[in-house]
Design brief:
D-Maltodextrin-Binding Protein, domain 2, 2 domains, 7-stranded mixed β-sheet, 4-stranded mixed β-sheet, disordered N terminus, Bact_solute-bd_prot1
Length: 442
């Protein structure tokens, strides 16, 4: 790696203002976003996976930061492989100041590589006051807070066509067995029950995680996520068996297993909310709403709605989440001003900008729910915030990328094979354990 670059701001006052600390002349603390243009003339470079509408909406947040501090911003979209892109930029001496990291495992990798600056006292104070402790834990490595979770995803939502459920004479179910019964009623009325995006292995990990969290409980979930529990544990086999009950039922899955394996995530939403519906329900996170609205013109809350992922057996309804954490790179050319941006992102004011634009959830409990533009998003955000420390981060996002985040390999590929043939959960658990052991050891 290139040697660490030291950023020299123009004068002590600019430095301490960027950090939100006490100014040199004995004046009081000034926070980033104080509206006094304290960072005029500086530029903060930001990298993240977002593109399209997400990038445009995040730019609105960055523009609000500029309006308050005077600092310009420059956003670069990395694509999905953020760790490789950022690593290359660091090696080339062109590290961004701030990175929006989409996976816990990547944040931990960055910290262990020595790339990250611990968050400032101002940012830490905001996290303590506005976020459930679980979000601080996921942003920390070995007790040091490096990441501020600005954008979250609620991955325990089942989206449905109200017309399809009405035609089948069923209501949104609260238990997994009732979900299967409701699905069969939908199938009997002329549509398949579920559209499953099996072409994208990450969606199958989300299916498994919701079933496992509810059925096995949070302690086993945490142990499995850290690989303190082997994937051959009976709880894993049991969860795979529960999921296999759905996957193997051709009446429940649009196009059967073959059709599901040829359906990507946008296609799975289209099969429910597109011009020629093939299914009544699609499971995935709150971001389904954005696709249904933006691509297919569905009115959220009217002809597209959701219900919480049902509890499995005697368990509780799960709340699985994902999210993007803002981290500051030591090697950034202006990492001090980058820290000021993260301090701003920690405020409800910053979250309100994107909340008003849509396609966004914040784990910041200080954000007024009225900031969201529709009742469905408001309800989803409320569910996420009220879940508090019962929220569990996407398990595959906590794993090494070789196991939990690589197309055609590891958990993604093994669960696709399980969707193709769900007859032997025990054998699938064995394959998952072999892949996990190799990845975690590496």
């Amino acid at each position: 790696m290139m040697r660490r670059r030291t950023t020299l701001l123009t004068g002590c006052t600019a430095l301490v203002l960027a950090l939100g600390a006490t100014a040199c002349g004995g004046s009081g603390p000034v926070s980033a976003g104080g509206g006094d243009k304290a960072l005029s003339g500086q530029t903060v470079s930001v990298a993240g996976v977002w593109s399209g509408t997400e990038q445009k909406n995040f730019q609105k947040v960055l523009d609000a930061f500029t309006a308050k501090t005077g600092a310009k911003t420059q956003f670069t979209s990395t694509g999905d492989n953020v760790s490789t892109v950022v690593g290359s930029k660091i090696e080339g001496g062109n590290a961004p100041d701030v990175v929006m990291v989409p996976q816990v495992g990547v944040l931990q990798q960055f910290a262990k590589n020595g790339w990250l600056q611990p968050l400032s006292a101002t940012a830490q104070k905001s996290v303590t006051a506005g976020f459930a402790p679980v979000w601080r834990n996921y942003g920390s490595v070995d007790g040091t807070l490096y990441g501020l979770y600005f954008k979250a995803a609620h991955k325990s939502t089942v989206w449905y066509s109200p017309d399809a459920l009405d035609q089948a004479g069923v209501k949104p179910p609260a238990a997994f067995d009732d979900l299967l019964k409701a699905g069969r009623a939908v199938s009997d009325s002329g549509l398949a029950a579920f559209s499953v995006a099996g072409q994208d292995g990450w969606t199958l990990t989300d299916w498994f995680e919701n079933v496992y969290l509810s059925q096995a409980g949070p302690e086993k979930y945490d142990a499995l996520a850290a690989h303190r529990l082997k994937w051959t544990d009976p709880s894993v086999v049991r969860a795979l068996g529960t999921l296999g009950t759905l996957f193997k039922d051709k009446e429940l899955v649009a196009g059967g297993q073959k059709g599901a394996l040829n359906t990507d995530f946008p296609g799975s939403v289209e099969k429910v909310f597109g011009p020629e519906p093939e299914a009544g329900m699609v499971y995935e996170g709150d971001f389904v709403a954005g696709v249904a609205k933006d691509q297919f013109g569905r009115a959220i809350g009217e002809d597209a709605d959701f219900f919480p992922f049902p509890k499995v057996g005697a368990g509780h309804a799960p709340v699985v989440s994902g999210g993007d954490a803002a981290v500051v790179l030591k090697d950034g050319k202006n990492h001090q001003a980058g820290m000021a941006l993260v301090e701003y992102l920690a405020t409800p004011e910053a979250a309100a900008v994107w909340a008003g634009a849509g396609g966004f959830l914040s784990p910041n409990k200080k954000l007024d729910l009225a900031s969201y533009g529709d009742d469905v998003t408001r309800a989803t955000a409320k569910s996420l915030v009220e879940a508090g420390d019962s929220v569990r981060f996407d398990m595959s996002d906590q794993a090494p990328a070789a196991f939990g985040g690589t197309k055609g390999a590891g958990e993604w590929k093994i669960l696709q094979d399980f969707l193709r043939d769900p007859s032997d959960p025990k054998a699938t658990a064995g394959r998952l354990e072999a892949a996990a052991a190799k990845a975690y050891q590496g």
